[in-house]
Write a structure and sequence with these properties.
single chain; about 375 residues; Dna Ligase, domain 1; D-amino Acid Aminotransferase, Chain A, domain 1; 3 domains; five-stranded antiparallel sheet
């Protein structure tokens, strides 16, 4: 079994500009945002509580040994109830632990630096684990918490760390073959923007056959959580990619975002999945930037494995989120409390596509949702 060195010496925080190129210390999400900031594109003010702080937190609270014991019990596929029990114990350990004085001091110093510049006085805390927003996106598996007061940041920091051990996050890491020590958790502390509109942007279509055609901006009113978790239907703006980076397209917010998207694709050397928001004054900010997975699977001539090959499709059309072909018995999900009851080999039908589905992927042949993005 590999042995991982867990550095726990300072720095326990870095500003966003310092985060660029330091994924092992600030996680994938913060490292990318540091590069976005260096490129001169707008994002809310903020800083990162580093993976060194996470390692110190585990060490001073003597958590590593018991976490490893519990992690050794995780089996996929396995009992969903046992996974829930393991997760519950680990998350409780994190919540009951104390944030080290050195980490609290580092957070306080960064807040003091940012406070004179004004702002809302509220904060958004976002996960930024090592390995996140890279080859494995971890999209929706970890925790972000919004509208946090200054005084509550240390406690909310623990909640973000606890989210590393949520059932869906545990299942995702095991499925990706990642050890817990390989994915240390940093936390982004970013000024909270009161959002008029929010959304995501794909700089290319996700299906390989259309990947060179368009850039797409998705928008919902208010904060973007309802879009990211699949519970809201967005407005959709599509742009031809040949529009270029510097052409004058007027004041359209969607066009401005599209231009930034192409700039970021050029910066990172590939298609990007970008989260953004617009404040009440009409200013746009970039909140996240990660590689966009382009699906290359060809399914036109494929046939699903089924004992009833003559069955005809009940529904056709819709938008492809992930291409493929499969057959199975339909399970209609009315609420997430039913996830433990989904049998192996199911085609899951639901209203939306919440991240919690990641915890039962081994049991699913396919998923069909009425809405979401």
């Amino acid at each position: 079994m590999p042995v991982f060195a867990a550095a726990s010496e300072p720095p326990y925080s870095l500003d966003m500009a310092q985060a660029a190129g330091q994924a092992e210390m600030v996680g994938g999400k913060a490292a990318a945002l540091g590069r976005v900031l260096q490129a001169g594109l707008p994002q809310p003010r903020g800083f990162v509580v580093t993976t060194r702080a996470f390692n110190l937190f585990l060490a001073q609270n003597n958590l590593r040994h018991r976490l490893d014991e519990l992690l050794a019990e995780v089996r996929l596929p396995g009992s969903a109830n046992r996974l829930q029990e393991i997760s519950h114990e680990m998350m409780a350990m994190i919540r009951q632990a104390e944030v080290p004085a050195q980490v609290r001091e580092a957070i306080g110093e960064r807040l003091a630096e940012l406070r004179p510049a004004g702002g809302s006085g509220r904060w958004a805390l976002r996960s930024s684990a090592v390995g996140e927003d890279g080859e494995n996106s971890f999209a929706g598996q970890y925790v972000s918490l919004l509208d946090v007061a200054h005084a509550d940041i240390p406690e909310v920091y623990k909640e973000i760390v606890a989210g590393k051990y949520a059932p869906q996050a545990l299942a995702y890491r095991v499925r990706c073959g990642l050890a817990d020590q390989e994915t240390a958790m940093a936390v982004i502390v970013m000024e909270m923007i009161e959002a008029k509109n929010s959304g995501v942007m794909y700089t290319r279509e996700k299906a390989a056959e259309a990947a060179g055609d368009t850039l797409t901006v998705y928008a919902v009113a208010g904060t973007g959580g309802r879009l990211v978790d699949g519970s809201a239907e967005p407005e959709v703006y599509r742009f031809p990619r040949e529009m270029g980076l510097h052409q004058d397209f007027g004041m359209s917010k969607a066009v401005r975002l599209a231009e930034w998207g192409l700039q970021l694709e050029e910066l990172f050397g590939g298609p990007q999945d970008i989260e953004w928001c617009e404040d009440l004054q009409g200013n746009c900010y970039l909140l996240q930037c990660r590689p966009l997975q382009i699906f290359n699977e060809k399914t036109e001539d494929a046939e699903p494995e089924t004992d009833e090959p003559d069955l005809q499709p009940l529904v056709s059309g819709g938008t492809t989120a992930s291409p493929g072909i499969a057959a199975g018995r339909v399970f209609i999900l009315d609420n997430e409390a039913q996830l433990a009851d989904v049998p192996n080999g199911s085609v899951l039908v639901s209203a939306t596509l919440p991240p919690s589905f990641a915890g039962i992927l081994e049991r699913l042949r396919a998923v069909v949702a009425e809405g979401g993005s």
